[in-house]
Amino acid sequence: MEQALYVRFQGTVRHLRGHFPGVFVLANELAAQGKLTEEQYRFWRSNNDWYDANYINPTDVDPNIYNPDVHPGAVAWFKSSARDLIKRVDGYLSLLAAHGVVCRRLESSNPGRIIYEDENQIVVVPL
């Protein structure tokens, strides 16, 4: 059996645009809605800052990467080799679970047509 090259953590409920949002979007929404406890907010803020400092935000490279008119359904996947980035997702999963937000882990060797790639991640449009 072929080893999955990519990993994604996403919710189980579709967003208005029809895709399943990733854990960062889901956590950011809870924070924006003021639903996080003080401790959860500190975790969210410090870990978002860590991710911002340690990997490229694809929208900084291409502001239209997630534009639904340009790239319908575009979503990001970690490369399975990005272990340091992936292991920090557990805290987000715990935060989301505390608010009843169910997430799942997906693994794939071909999650879609790659429209962005760097050393840690890809952004794809599903096939």
The helix/strand class is alpha+beta
Radius of gyration: 14 Å
Biggest beta sheet attributes: 5 strands, antiparallel
Number of strands: 5
Count of discrete alpha- or pi-helical segments spanning 4 or more residues: 5
User: How much helical structure, as a percent, in the residues?
Assistant: 25-40%
What is the N-to-C succession of helices and strands?
Answer: EHHHEHHEEE
What is the average per-residue confidence, as pLDDT, rounded to a whole number? 95
Distance between the termini: 22 Å
Strand order of the largest sheet: 3-1-2-5-4
Q: What is the global morphology?
A: globular
Which regions have little confidence, pLDDT < 50, spanning 5+ residues?
A: none
Strand content: 15-25%
Q: What does it look like?
A:
- The chain is of the alpha+beta class and 127 residues long.
- Helices cover 36% and strands 21% of the residues.
- The chain has 5 helices and 5 strands; from the N terminus they run E-H-H-H-E-H-H-E-E-E.
- It has a 5-stranded antiparallel sheet.
- Strand 4 (113-117) and strand 5 form a beta hairpin.
- Helix 1 packs across helix 5.
- The longest helix has 17 residues, at 38-54.
Topology (elements, then pairings):
Layout: E1 6-11, H1 23-32, H2 38-54, H3 58-61, E2 75-79, H4 83-87, H5 89-98, E3 103-108, E4 113-117, E5 121-125
Antiparallel strand pairs: 1-2, 1-3, 2-5, 4-5
Helix pairs in contact: 1-5
Observed structural traits:
127 residues, alpha+beta, five-stranded antiparallel beta sheet, 5 strands
